[in-house]
Amino acid sequence: MPSILSSGLQSTLYLLIIRLIIALISLPVHECAHGYAALRMGDHTAERQGRLTLNPLAHFDIIGTTAIILFGFGWAKPVPINPLNFENPKKGMMLSSLAGPLSNIGLAFLAIVLYKISFIPAYMGMDSAFLLTVQTFLLYMISINITLGVFNLIPIPPLDGSRIATYFLPQRIYFKIMQYENIIFIVLLIALWFGILDGPINFVSGAVMDLLDYITRPIDWLIAFVI
Hints:
The protein has 227 residues and is an all-alpha fold. The protein is 73% helix and 0% strand. It is built from eleven helices and no strands.
């Protein structure tokens, strides 16, 4: 029994460490994507406040990071964006908000490519424990980033989807919703804790995974041809 418990504890710690490393990579990329998109459209707020950096400490949010470690999806400290600096404020907010989730999908795409390429040494008889560790890490990188991207597209505050919704909703309705942002945030945390959002998020994430797998299918064909 002790050995089984020890093995289970090691597996749990291993998973938590992987999720933490992925969070330290993915969250800065996500927030930098927001800031860089805003910068390209004329808003230098994030740049002036030192948020266009991949330093995880600049974007750290204890609740959002903990959520990623425990649940596989969460958020970072939002990058400051001033829509008044955009030529078209509603469009600028929508595009800069969309940049974050898309950056996570981009990371997942890159991880899928690397994951498929990583099987070349195995096909050549060079399998190893290190290679297996890399493949495990890449699988979690794919899964967490897809889930992170999908989760942040949910159109409720404070997630990116709520800001994307400003492009489609009349301002009076949007500001009415934002009056209850704190309450909605608490409800969101409760929903995360009880797994209420797991079903919809997993369904959409699975669809995105299938799409990325389909897009990278030529890599499978190339490897099969070469091997």
